[in-house]
Amino acid sequence: MTSNTHGRRHLAPAAMALLLVLSACGGRFSDTHRPDTGPVTEKAADLAKQYRLGPHGFGKITLGMSVAEATATGQIRVNDLAGLSGCTIATETGKTPDGAVSISASRGVVKIASYTGVRTPEGIGLGASLDDLRKAYPDVKAETEADMGNGQIQMDDHYRAPVPGNPQAAYRFFVDHDNRVDAMLLVTAKPDPDCDVGYSN
Questions:
Q1: How far does the signal peptide extend, from start to end residue (predicted)?
Q2: What is the mean pLDDT of the chain?
Q3: For the chain, which end, N or C, has fewer CB atoms within 10 Å of the first or last residue's CB respectively?
Q4: Are strands 61-62 and 57-58 parallel, antiparallel or unpaired?
Q5: Is residue 117 within 8 Å of 128, Cβ to Cβ?
């Protein structure tokens, strides 16, 4: 649907038209992203057991790393043809095909996606309920993307929470029709002009 799995640019015309129709009907949008629930490799599973997503990164990858630094960790593979201008998109080792790390030309790593088995230090992972999310992060709030569709689309399946121990970062959670987390990201708290992530409304 988008050129950046969890971004907000380049919606296909047909997809945008569908969202506009749904917005007019006041429906709930639970299919605005792809879930990160696909199978992972043994190496990726081992990383998920050893590390948590946050507060500063995942495994050896940390927010702010350059492309060279992040690649040197062995946890990512750069996608030569993917990304926005000024933004390098890399796939995490063993992840689902859509899982990605976004690396800004000006600010380094600005987004790290999760995958099956990965948890935050507070115990939230894919499959957690919305109630679990609210208990772990009392300050979590629904996140809208009012700029999509010229301000006509409001999506309520995105949630954003501060990252304990790192005020410069935020968690973004996506939930499915059953109010279960099916994708989550660690992002920079401030908007990034290169990769267009970390925004808040």
A1: 1-26
A2: 76
A3: C
A4: antiparallel
A5: no
Q: What is the pLDDT of residue 6?
A: 46
Residue 17 binned pLDDT confidence (cut-offs 50, 70, 90): very low
Identify which of 153, 199, 188, 162 has the alpha carbon closest to the alpha carbon of residue 31.
153
> What whole-number distance in Å separates Cα of residue 158 and Cα of residue 178?
14
Which amino acid appears at position 19 of this protein?
L
pLDDT of residue 42: 82
Q: DSSP letters along the chain, please? A: --SSTTS-S---HHHHHHHHHHHHHT-----SS----S---HHHHHHHHH--S-SSEETTEETT--HHHHHHTTSEEE-TT-S-TTEEEEEETT--TT--EEEETTTEEEEEE--TT-B-TTS-BTT-BHHHHHHH-TT-EEE--TTGGGGT----SEEEEEETTEEEEEEEEEE-TTSBEEEEEEEESS--TTT--S---
pLDDT classification of 139: cutoffs 50, 70, 90: very high
